[in-house]
Each structure stands twice: as structure tokens, then as C-alpha cells.
Amino acid sequence: MRGELDEVKRPLLIAHVSADLQLLCQTCLTEMTFQIDHDFTLCVVPDEEQAEQITEYDAVIADDEELSVLPLFEDELILSLPVVAHHAPGECAVAESLLREDDEIEASEKPNPFSVLASLKKSSK
């Protein structure tokens, strides 16, 4: 984490957060490791009025000249979490077996759209 000033001398907080979190795959309900590796930049402003004027960065309000960074890192970790946790393609055994079964069922139940042509061909001979 470091602090800088941007082109118009606004204070910026530039940070990086990384973590390996244990989440529950919502497909197979087993634990999985989810890696977060996230860079973020926040513009530190004294009040909400100035925060609304910031468009280039996310703004954080430091109204009493002190800023607790722990909640900022916690927020960035939460924002980096997936909406639904699941294994990467090819790593979830349940999903693979379900996909294969669905493909086999679909392939066997779908009528061949060209089967009508085959019957016409036979009748014309």
C-alpha cells in the first residue's frame, strides 16, 4: 500500500490485496481454494460532496483526517468474491458427470431433422 497525489494533487491510496480463500463450490458442495489478487486505487476526500465529484477512482471519505485501512481491505476482498463460487471448468467432478449425462440424453432424444429426407429418398426409388 502506498500514497500518491494525482495530476490535480488529490490524495490517492494505491493498494494490492491477495488472499487464498476457502469457499464452498455451489455445484459439488466441496471446499475449493479461490485466489484473489486485486489492485485498487482510492481517492481520499474529506466529505461526501467531493466524493460525488470523483469519477476516475472510487472515493473514500476521511472525515476526521484519519482513515482506517482495515475496512477498506475487507471491502475490496468482499467485492472480489464471485457471486457464485464454483470450480474452474474441468476441475469439478460432479459438473463434468452431469454435463456428460445431459449431452448423452439430448443426443439420444433429439430426432434427426434429416430423417424425413431419408424416407423421401427411399420412396422415390
Indicate the percent of residues in helices. 25-40%
Which class of secondary structure composition applies to the elements? Answer: alpha+beta
Question: How many H/I helical runs?
Answer: 4
Given as residue ranges, the uncertain stretches (5+ residues, pLDDT < 50) are: none
- What summary fits the major beta sheet? 4 strands, mixed
Shape: elongated
Q: Roughly how many Å is the radius of gyration?
A: 27 Å
The averaged pLDDT comes out at: 85
Classify the beta-strand content into a percent band.
Answer: 25-35%
Write the layout of secondary structure elements.
Blueprint: E1 2-5, E2 11-24, E3 31-45, H1 48-53, E4 58-61, H2 70-80, H3 93-109, H4 115-124
Parallel strand pairs: 3-4
Antiparallel strand pairs: 1-2, 2-3
Give me a quick take on this structure.
Helices cover 35% and strands 30% of the residues. It is α+β, with helices and mostly antiparallel strands.
